Amino acid sequence: MPISQRVLTPVVASPVILAVVTYFFWSSIIHPDTIKGTKHVLQLAKTIPLPGDGPESLEFDLQGEGPYVGVMDGRILKWRGEELGWVDFAYTSPHRENCSRHEVIPSCGRPLGLSFERKTGDLYICDGYFGVMKVGPEGGLAELVVDEAEGQKVMFANQGDIDEDEDVFYFNDSSDKYHFREVFYVFVSGDKVGRVIRYDMKTKDAKVIMDKLHFNNGLALSKDGSFVITCETGTGLLHRIWVKGPKSGTNEIFTRLPGFPDNIRRTATGDFWVALHCKTSLLPRVILSHPLVGKFFMKMLKVETLIHFMNGGKPHGMVVKVSGETGEILEMLEDSEGKTMKYVSEAYERDGKLWFAAVFMPSIFVLDTSVYDPK
C-alpha cells in the first residue's frame, strides 16, 4: 500500500467512526441523568407571568409582602397579588432609556440575589455588573454598597445573605473576568476564580473568606450563623465555610448535588433549598472535565448550542432540599419534561408554599408544599 494511502485511510475513517458512534449513542451522551427518588411534581406549580424576563431571585419584605424579583432590564418588581399584579419597586441604574425586558444591557444593571435586612428594611441587591447595592423600604434608585474586596474589583456579585447579629453581609463574586451577560463562559471555561466575601456593614471592610471556586453561584447562612454554604455550579459541590466557633476560618465539602446548582435559600427549620439549573449528563461532564476542553467548546459552538447541550437537549426544572446539619439530600423535586418549569434559579419556602424563580423565564412559580410533603 502506498504511503499516502496508509496515511489517508485513518484520517478518513476517524470522522466516519465518530459519526457512527454519535448516531447510535447520542441519546445516552446528551440525555440528562435519571435520578432515583425524585418526585415529579414541579409541573403542577402555578405560573405567575411577569412584565419582563429573568426573575433570578425572589424575596419577601418585613411585612411578608411580595415576592420581590429582579429582572433583566435592571428593575426590582413587587407582587401585589392577583388583583394589583406587579408594580415597579426599585432599579439599580439611573440609565433606563435603552433597557430591554428581554436582553441584558450592562448599563441598566442586572439584579441577581436579593436579601432584606430585617433591622432597617433595606433591600440588599447583588448586581451582576455594579456590585452589592441597597435600596430603602420605599424603593427607588439603589445605591452602591461595595464593589471591591482586598483591592480587587467585584465583577460578578451573585447571591448573598445577612448575619443580622453581626451586621455582616456575605456574598459571592463569581468571576474576576466575566459579568452576567457572559455567565455561561464563567461556567464552561473551568476557571477557578470565584470568591466568597465577608462585608462588615459597620466598618465597611470587605474580606475574602474563600477563593479559587469554579463559578460559585448560590450562598446562604446557617440558622445559627456559624457557617456559610456556597455552591460551585461547575463542580456541583456544596461547600461549608465556618465563620464562627472552633472551626472558624476552615471549610469543607458539605455535599455533592445531582446537577448544576444556582441559588440557595434557608428554610425556617434550618435546612436549605438548592435550585438546579439542570441535571448533569455525559456530554457536560466531558466539557467540564478540563478547562482546555471547555474553552475549546466555547470557541467551536454558539452559546445557545452550548446551553442546549448542557441541558441535555431538553430544558427542565429541579430543586433539592439539603439538611442544614448533615448535608444529606432530603427532597428532590423535578419537572423532568420542562412542561411548566425550566432553568430554575431559586426555591424559597414560606408559609406552606414553595416559590420558584427562573433565570431565563418570563414568570415565577408557586407550589403548595402539601403536594410533595403530606405532613
Account of the 3D structure:
It is found in: Vacuole. It comes from Cardamine amara subsp. amara. Keywords: Glycoprotein, Membrane, Signal, Transmembrane, Transmembrane helix, Vacuole. The protein is an alpha+beta fold and 375 residues long. It has a single domain, classed as Neuraminidase, CATH 2.120.10. It has five helices and 28 strands. The chain has helices at residues 3-30, 183-189, 282-287, 291-300, 303-310; strands at residues 39-40, 46-49, 58-59, 68-70, 75-79, 86-91, 111-116, 123-127, 131-135, 140-141, 143-146, 148-149, 152-153, 157-163, 168-173, 194-200, 206-213, 216-221, 227-232, 237-242, 251-256, 259-266, 272-279, 317-322, 329-335, 344-350, 353-358, 363-368. The strands form seven sheets. The protein has a five-stranded mixed beta sheet, with no helix packed on it. The protein has a five-stranded mixed beta sheet with strand order 3-4-5-6-10, with no helix packed on it. Strand 22 (259-266) and strand 23 form a beta hairpin. The longest helix has 28 residues, at 3-30. Mean pLDDT is 90; it is low at 1-15 and 17-23.
CATH-defined fold name: Neuraminidase
In CATH, what is the class?
A: Mainly Beta
**What is the mean pLDDT?**
90
Helix content range: 10-25%
Q: Structural class given helices, strands, pairing?
A: alpha+beta
Major β-sheet annotation? 5 strands, mixed
Strand content: 35-45%
Indicate how many domains the architecture comprises: 1
Distance between the termini: 75 Å
* Global outline: globular
Radius of gyration: 21 Å
Second CATH tier, the architecture = 6 Propeller
* Count of distinct strands: 28
Name of the CATH homologous superfamily? TolB, C-terminal domain
- Widest β-sheet, arrangement of strands: 1-25-24-23-22
Total helices: the number is 5
The low-confidence runs, each spanning 5 or more residues with pLDDT under 50, are 1-15, 17-23
Organism: Cardamine amara subsp. amara
Keywords: Glycoprotein, Membrane, Signal, Transmembrane, Transmembrane helix, Vacuole
Subcellular location: Vacuole
Domain Strictosidine synthase conserved region: 158-246
